[in-house]
Amino acid sequence: MTELLTFPAASATLLEPRLPQPKPSTSPSRPFVTLTFATSLDSSLSLAPGVRTRLSGPGSKAMTHYIRSRHAAILIGVSTLIADSPSLNCRITGAASQPRPIIIDPHLRWTPNPADKVLELARLGHGLAPFVLTGVEAQSLPAASVALLEQHGGKYIPLAATSSGPSGRMRFDWHVVFDVLFREGLLSVMVEGGGQIINSLLEPRFHALIDSIIVTIAPTWLGQGGVVVSPSGIRDSAGIPIPAARLSDVSWHPFGEDVVLCGKLHP
Ligand SMILES: NC(=O)c1ccc[n+]([C@@H]2O[C@H](COP(=O)([O-])OP(=O)(O)OC[C@H]3O[C@@H](n4cnc5c(N)ncnc54)[C@H](O)[C@@H]3O)[C@@H](O)[C@H]2O)c1
Ligand SMILES: Nc1nc(=O)c(N)c(NC[C@H](O)[C@H](O)[C@H](O)COP(=O)(O)O)[nH]1
After folding, report:
1. Can you give the residue ranges of the Bacterial bifunctional deaminase-reductase C-terminal domain (predicted)?
2. Closest protein CA for atom 15 of ligand 1
3. Could you give the C-alpha distances from 256 to 137, 184, 262, in angstroms and in order?
4. Which of 88, 66, 188 is nearest to 132 (CA)?
5. Is any ligand 2 atom within 6 A of the Cβ of residue 84?
6. 31-39+55-223+244-265: what fold?
7. Which ligand has the nearest atom to the CA of 202?
């Protein structure tokens, strides 16, 4: 079995105000959403699309697993699933439960296979099988994939999508995504990427859905051609460009050679 990571209690205390509380004081109507990723100094998540790139050092990697332990679900885009073949489980000492992996796959690009790491870990009881949010209607889902996911405890969740552009690319409204996850009983969601997921969630109309942002910054430039976090530019009513988003309530925490930036998009 993979060795478990440890995260110091003092570091956990620093992060506490940034994390969902086990017993919130008011009853929520949507999940607590944490947006988190690791970036280079040139805002890259990876060297190129489809290339798994290690950015986090050991300390911030343990932090990511600690943050996973504090969320009911971890959400990624299908390109990250295909590129990284991730475990999507929590490998930290003391974790009380495993997070539910959520895959955003509107066009059903992922064909589940028993050899996929995420399914293998579900079989071993070291993680949960994914819920796959798709724009494909229930009656059009491939029966073998439905059966395989269900055998592992996962499932497809068909969702209304809007098509855009000549390619007919389907897009979900994040309000709809988090609403459906809330109705599944998932009260906290950690969004891990990749680039398209993060850039679309950072559109101003979705800012109110994001409760916390935790970014690991690694001391490296990946160079051009990478998957970059850079949301669409916006303009004010006079047509003057303004920042797409800015954090408030900011704190910076060194973890080994990395620095972790925490903040919020709204008061
Ligand atoms: N450094 C990090 O923290 C980190 C985290 C995650 C992924 N990555 C890297 O990022 C790369 C993948 O990023 P990417 O941008 O190519 O892909 P992605 O993981 O963001 O997935 C893109 C796909 O997700 C779906 N999608 C995204 N937004 C959607 C929306 N609003 N509605 C419906 N569907 C939507 C679409 O199918 C789209 O093709 C990989 O190389 C991976 O290694 C790095
Ligand atoms: N925090 C972080 N630092 C990194 O250097 C890096 N490359 C990722 N990438 C996030 C992405 O979601 C990956 O797919 C998962 O980090 C895979 O991780 P696991 O196999 O589940 O441990 N995230």
Report:
1. 31-261
2. 195
3. 46, 37, 16
4. 88
5. yes
6. Dihydrofolate Reductase, subunit A (3.40.430)
7. 1
59: preceding bond cis by omega (within 30 degrees): no
**Cα of 37 from ligand 2 centre, angstroms:** 8
Model confidence pLDDT, tens digit, residues 117-144: 999 999 999 999 999 999 999 999 999 9
Mutate which of 52, 56, 103, 190 to test ligand 2's pocket (most atoms within 8 Å of Cβ)? 56
The mean pLDDT value for 25-35 works out to 92
CB 130 less than 6 A from any atom of ligand 1: no
Q: Give CA–CA dist 124/215, Å, rounded.
A: 31
| Ligand 2 contact, 57 CB (< 6 A) | no
Burial 182-194 (b: 16+ CB within 10 A, else e): eebebbbbbbbbb
DSSP 13: H
Confidence of residue 3 (pLDDT cuts 50, 70, 90): confident
- State the ipTM, two decimals: 0.98
Q: Is there an atom of ligand 1 within 6 Å of 231 CB?
A: no
Is-contact 258 60, C-beta < 8 A? yes
The response to whether residue 116 sits with its C-beta less than 6 Å from ligand 1 reads no
Contact call for residues 261 and 60 (beta carbons, < 8 A): no
Q: Where are the domains of the chain?
A: 31-39+55-223+244-265
Cβ–ligand 2 contact at 258 (below 6 Å): no
Non-local CB neighbours of 129 within 8 Å, separated by 6+ positions: 101, 118, 119, 122, 149, 152, 153, 154
